[in-house]
Amino acid sequence: MQKIFLALLLTVAMLSGCGSHQISVIPLSADLEINKICIENNPVVTIQEFLPVVQDAFILNGIPHEVFNGNTAPEDCSAVARYYALRSWDLKTYLRTAYVHIYINNNKVAGIDYYHPNNLNTDKYDSVKEKISPPMNEMLRAHSWKKKSE
Fold it and tell me: What is the mean pLDDT of each run of 10 residues along the chain (150 residues)?
């Protein structure tokens, strides 16, 4: 009985470490001339806290930004951010996949991609802020916004 319990415990421990979340970050280059980033509102995203978390990262990094609806960004925007987020369910909902990409003239110049598989890791239930803020800050901090505004 003890051997079965130890085998089961070992199996659960191994599975809980399998397939942890994946994050990729392409930092925004400090060399890019950007005066404001406009965030294209994505009505498909139903995770209400996602856009505010993205906006908080822009604010924290001192980045002028605004949110717009539709496909055409305001003329004073030198870059456009597009985002997507999808939740899944496993006992309760969790952020499964998300991205925030920044484009200049329809060319991707920076971005984050987040993916968390459905596994036994409980970190999948962390808040959107806990999952998205660190890679957002990593993506944005390389760009010298104060230098551009002086």
Answer: 51 50 87 93 94 96 93 92 90 84 96 80 75 92 60
The domain in which residue 39 lies consists of 19-149
Q: Is 114 exposed, middle or buried (0-12, 13-18, 19+ CB in 10 A)?
A: buried
* Burial of 70 from C-beta contacts in 10 A (0-12 / 13-18 / 19+): exposed
**Contacts of 8 by beta carbon, 8 Å cutoff, 6+ apart:** none
- CA torsion angle 50 54 56 61 (round to 10): 160
Does the residue 11 lie in any domain? no
- Whether residue 143 is contained in a domain is answered as yes
Supply φ then ψ for residue 101, to 5 degrees: -120, 140
With beta carbons less than 8 A apart as the criterion, state whether 61 and 145 touch. yes
Tell me how many domains the chain contains.
1
